[in-house]
Amino acid sequence: MFDIQLPAFLEPVINTFRYAPLVIQLAMIFIVIAAVGTLLAYFSILRNRYLGNRRDKRLAKLLPKIDNLIIDEVLTHPEAETVPADQVVLNLDAFQELPLDKKWARSALTERIIHFRRNVRGNMGLLLRSLYMQLELDKDAMKKMKSGHWEKKVQALTEFTNMDMSVADVTILPLTNSRNRELRAAARHAYIKLSKNEPFKFFDVVTEPLLMWDQVELLRIISTTEDIAIPNFARWVTYSSNKSVVSFCLKLIVHYNQLPAVPAVIKLLDTKDHYLRADAINCLGKLQVPDVEDKLVSIYSTQPLHCQIEILKAIGRISSGRHIDFLKLEFLHSTDFDLRKSAAKSLVKNDWIAKQVIEELMATATPENLRILKHCMNPLIKY
Amino acid sequence: MSGILEILGKIYQSAIFVYGLVLLLVYALLAIFSRLAVRQYTRKNSLHQRDLLSSSPLAPGITILAPAFNEGMTIISNVRSLLTLNYPRYEIVLINDGSTDNTMEQLITEFKMVEVAYAYNVKIRTQPVRKIFKSTDPAYASLIVIDKVNGKSKADAVNAGINLATFNYFVCTDVDCILDKDTLLELILPVMQEENKRVIAVGATLRIANSCEFDEGVMTRMRPPRQLLPRFQEVEYIRSFVLGKMGWSYINCVPNVSGGLGLFDKEVATRCGGYDHSSFGEDMELLTRMCRYAHDNEIDYAIRYIPKTLCWTEAPATLKIFNRQRTRWARGLAQLMYSHFHMFMNPRYGKMGLIIFPFNFFFELLAPLVEFSGIIVYIVLAVTGNINWPYALLLLLFVYLYSVMITTISIVWDQLSFRYYKSWWEVAYLCMTPFMEFLIYHPLIVLYSLRGYYYFLTGKKSTWGNMQRQGFGKKKIK
Amino acid sequence: MFIHIVYGTNAATMSKILLIEDDEIMPKIVARILPSSEYELDHVSNGKEAFEKLESTQYGYDLIITDIMMPYANGFEILSKVKSQPRPIPVIIVSNAGNEDMVMEGFKLGADDFLKKPIIPAELMIRVKRLLMKNK
Lengths: 383, 478, 136
Description:
- Chain A is mostly helical.
- Chain A has a domain at 53-136.
- Chain A is built from 20 helices and no strands.
- Chain A has helices at 11-19, 22-75, 103-119, 123-134, 138-146, 150-163, 169-172, 181-194, 201-205, 212-224, 234-239, 243-255, 262-268, 274-287, 293-299, 305-318, 324-333, 337-349, 351-364, 367-377.
- In chain A, helix 6 packs parallel to helix 8 and helix 14 (274-287) packs parallel to helix 16.
- Chain B is α/β, with parallel strands linked by helices.
- Chain B is 54% helix and 15% strand.
- Chain B is built from 15 helices and twelve strands.
- In chain B, helix 1 packs parallel to helix 13 (389-418).
- The radius of gyration of chain B is 23 Å and the shape is globular.
- Chain C is α/β, with parallel strands linked by helices.
- Mean pLDDT of chain C is 86; it is low at 1-10.
- The chains are: A mainly alpha, B alpha/beta, C alpha/beta.
- At the A-B interface, helix 2, helix 6, helix 8, helix 10 and helix 18 of A face helix 1, helix 6, helix 13 and helix 14 of B.
- Chain C: It comes from Chitinophaga polysaccharea.
- Chain C: Residues 16-132 form the Response regulatory domain.
């Protein structure tokens, strides 16, 4: 094994190794590994810092140029606000001073355009998009779409979504069923934003739960896409068997104040899942549907605690003034602290009619209840 | 007689051999896992635009709990920096734990606070709350100040805050910690992106503030500590968070979320009784109980860590305070192992019982004892002339280099994803530290740990003055 | 200066606007929307600088455009301080906050207008003009 010619000074080392017990042999091997590993570690730190600093320096030089060009050629374009974006002729030659033959420079420019678009919309936003297209910056993303790497595909999809670039349904749809969760989610978001046919189609088919984060992204996309046709979300509240879709649609119903969806939401009160039921109650409260109060009060006594709290809150939000006695009774007789607090809060929200009741309660309440009332009436306290 | 000794010696030797080998392997695995976990994080980071959340109506509410004891020097700027965190829906509950300086007065005048009748439910028993304050200026509407009787522990103060917390998640920190402005966004993300499990706690990397530059509670320049003792701690923190906690996080086996900064699921934390004020390591103790609660109630839970540094804390710069801190930590560990020992190797507690607990028992709790015994055996053998010096030195060199490598690797992971510090000189400076750590810093820790165990065994009624509590006022002792 | 004299506009009639914004691009866009021939635009990037600027000029601005979430002092604090002055300066909040609570909070503190990012340039222009007119 050690027959290879070795420098003489290593000989004692080799000999020690050969005749040492196993432990020592292992130790010697690991000494070499550790020393080499540490050196490699130093090297990778140096390399990483060098590359990073170089990137930073390049960008520090490039970005002001990009900014100036975008401002001079796009934002300050004499026709920027008067002529429709697709008819404006941009001076693309000016951008030739950027090293756009380099990939890093192109991606920096793309990122900057997206950054601008995050701050400004309207015709200027469209003009920025047209700059992106005319400089053919979308080609890189197209290439990424074809890459076998899911990460690249996600990047490309996000870029298209941000830039409002239409992509054929046939390209996106297969990806919405990808085995990779991240890719699947990105494809769905892109589909909602970019598909001209049925943007909400995937609500029908999705079986796995929508994560909280997905919902944040979805809501952002739905609410910022300008020419999207908002459907009646009651459809999924009624038919979807995916609880997270139902729960998300309830939030959308509130967001778009979809009163026509109310009957479907009321029907959901009969669901066996009490988390969904609580969401439905919450939704009805926020929509301020007065007709539903009686129903809520009638089911109150059979509900689990968190649904009861939602019912009390809903009555406060609706503030019809018709269930003051119910709130008062709950406030006086409930043993649970949170129920009493929610009841008190809702009473205070009904104070346009419940003033007298509140005063009466203030005069007779136990010290703890009095504190609750004071808490709820204090404008400095939010929750 | 000598025969028995020889057999004992053999057994001891093989036991130590196995012990060392396992430890070695564990660290090698942690190095790999942590790399994977850090990669996963940076990848997610690049794909998701996190400031989406800061503008979303769907952001979950978070309560920040910040206990303060005699923090008069820095309280205003620190509360100010909490008020400017980048998050759309949060409240700050500042707990004045019976300060004897002007902390309370400063808060009242600076933020125009008035006493309010705040109704809350005492779910966890604490020392009495004297008064609760809110600001009359709507600009500070998210701030609540609790003035309570000193409970002689951070645990008691935080518990009082938990009772008041409105939201489902709370972030526990120390008021003298400096937080990154994206702390809340970062900490809630693992909760929102987890697929099947319920995330009950999230932690992040802590770092040493000693030589960093701050401006009114905002970190402006990161620097490795100039003094040796804090620098040792910086290196130790990087290793323990970026390599240790991240590695454990990868296999969902996080043993502890540091008291300096952590996000917790309020329901689980409250249900299992909140922090234990009699514990010397209340953060780890709470997490152990939360895991137990989750197992007992069949909650499929996860605890996550993120590698980004979100919190800077002032490290003890003198041996005296450092000694106190580590003695306390060791005592806390012993206490914890003792009171939860039935979880040891108990399959009922899943990974907690089969991996985390045994690891902590053998390689955290026993390590100082094993090392100490090793040194004694060494000395005895040396005196009796039974040492094969070349072999012994080789072994020592091996352990030394291996520990240097592991620490350096953790610095690499940290550098690869964040490129902290301004110049590579500062990183080089940091990289020199592990070479001394083994010889200077490590023996100290062994010593202080043994002292902590001794106090635990003798049940020394320590006169924990307020100054001695970790995280509180340690700055002022200097 | 020469041009100002020729055209009869000078610093006294130009509207002074303070922009408080930590995004690096937004100020460039705003500077483009509000031409320097009509507006004197000062930009600071955090709450601390904003207060310094306001104090050094004795709150000598005709309009403030501010973001909400910024280091050192958030938009609410700035609003509250500005609105408690004897001569309250009109304030427009420009933010990406989609959280209604935050917008409400802003109005409660006396914000005069709210614009959500991304903004439409013409809209900002109109609102700036309207507020300046009202307070002339």
